[in-house]
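Example 3.2
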Amino acid sequence: MEADGWDLHVQRTYAGIDRGDNLAPHTEGTPDTSEPIPARISPDPALLDRLREEVRKRHYSDRTEDAYADWVARYLRFHRYRDPREMGKEEIERYLSHLAVDRDVAASTQNQAFSALLFLYRDVLGIKLEWLDGIVRAKRPKLLPVVLTRDEVASVLKHLSGGNLIAAMLMYGAGLRLLECLTLRIKDIDFGYRQITVRQGKGNKDRVTVLPAAVEPRLKLHIEDVRVLFEKDLKEGGGYVKLPKALGRKYEKADCAWGWQWVFPAHRRYPDPETGIRQRHHLDETVLQRAVKEAAVRAEIRKHATCHPFRHSFATHLLEEGYDIRTIQELLGHRDVSTTMIYTHVLNRGGRCVRSPMDILG
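Structure, written as tokens:
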């Protein structure tokens, strides 16, 4: 690519990629962005394309792919789009320090950025350097999960309606994560066995969890409404949804089959950037997040009541009911039981089930 062409490519590819994480105002240790971008920046204008290709080879999730591409783009912007082959430990540590000190990001965010850069150097550029293992990862603090009482859960649900109410009932009643709930397909709901199959959850693992009996009547009516919308789309030449990986080639017309439709479809259709076919996406997570947040405010919940505490409350309330930790681990899809054990410290019986001496006084 010509020098001027590469310059345009860089500005077109990375412009606005930081989503508001701008480098101004200038701080000590941060590259000065007032100078013009040099015309020739890297010998490889398709770096992000190569990164995405390597991610897909390893069957990582789409969100991991987007996150890695985003962090690499931010890293290059931070260092004025220098060739990453010319940078090393010092540049990586400076960027990670910028995230921690100047941007004040969480430890998990800083570690995600490091993982993206590690992937860039090792798997995309093929640079195997010993100093990569020597970079210290940020230590994540041990935080107790936010758990709502049963009354608080009921109060939040009381201020929700429609699909948002059903989704919230499933997150609490089945221990689903936000995206696990919104990416459910019709075929994943089994009313006969009263179970929900979660496909490609965290860690790309499938699992089965319980379908709450209390949500069945509402869910059945909701699915009937979804069926009406689906049939309307079919009459208009639509009814298509995005399928995982290469299933579209394996199963002919599966992308417009009823079983593959979303349980919580979006209100609008969009043209797929690869095929141009107008598809219907699942409900955007921000819609449900906003609804739950507003419901918590109306319910006057003082805790940080977002979508994820429904899952925490599911696990804690099962423990309170006497279910064993292994069963809860399987329902939540935790790889290690030690992750599930955190809920034993937030049971509604005081710290570590200790009775306060104040309560013993006569």
